[in-house]
Amino acid sequence: MVTVRRWWDHKALQVSLLALALGGAWILRQTQGEFLMEAYQVISSPLQMLSPGMTPEERQAELLRDAQFMELQTRITELESQNKKLQDLLGYVAKEPLASRPIPARVIGRSADHWWQQVTLNRGSTSGIQPGYIVKAEGGLVGLVESVTANTSRILLISDLKSQVGVTISRTSTKGVLRGDSSAEAVLEFYEKVPSVKVGDLVSTSTYSQRFPAGVPIGRIKSLDLKKLPASIARVELFPPIRTLDWVAVYPKPQNLDLENQQSATQKTHKSN
Known about the structure:
This protein has helices at 2-31, 34-49, 56-94, 255-272, and strands spanning 103-109, 118-121, 134-137, 140-148, 153-157, 164-169, 175-180, 185-190, 202-205, 217-225, 233-238, 247-251.
């Protein structure tokens, strides 16, 4: 008994410190450090308030300056991003022949309920845009001008469920109709029962198209269902960034399409007579 008491007299301080350390570690683990942070805040807050040269009003002003700086930095980053996109679009536009240069425009309206159906541009009839004009972006075809006001245009996107585009497979000239699917992909229905296509084939607008010029890039075959009835179908990954559309180029409707439509209307009139 005497031996134990002597051992305790010599080791009591060490055992107490060890127990305190273990208890603190257990509390720290259980509270995920919250207790330590609270203790730090309680101890440091009075010291911060008493810090020489820093009154509560000055600290509030400093916090306000920090918030204003972050706001300004965010705006600069956004402007730099928009400038880069505009420069890319202007470079894309500059590649076109001078006689058929498109009208650059920016997307200013897009409803969450119609995200894949339509967008509104900041250019309209005042800029020379008319219904039926073609809308493209880097990557290819975006859609068609559906209606205009003096300063805005509403665009029917190729991803809209109502959208139908006559297309061709570049490698084999296989034809079909591309329909929107309210996503970054579209459904291609072939005219042939057994089309000559494979995954990875490129898709562009067809010479059969009544609304779009031929040869405009659209996307790439992502998957095939050649057993689908009544016609084989494919899923097409769209090239244009429909999901994040920002800047676009608006092109006049090609004159040859107007001539084709006039000829078609004339033929129908003769047949009806």
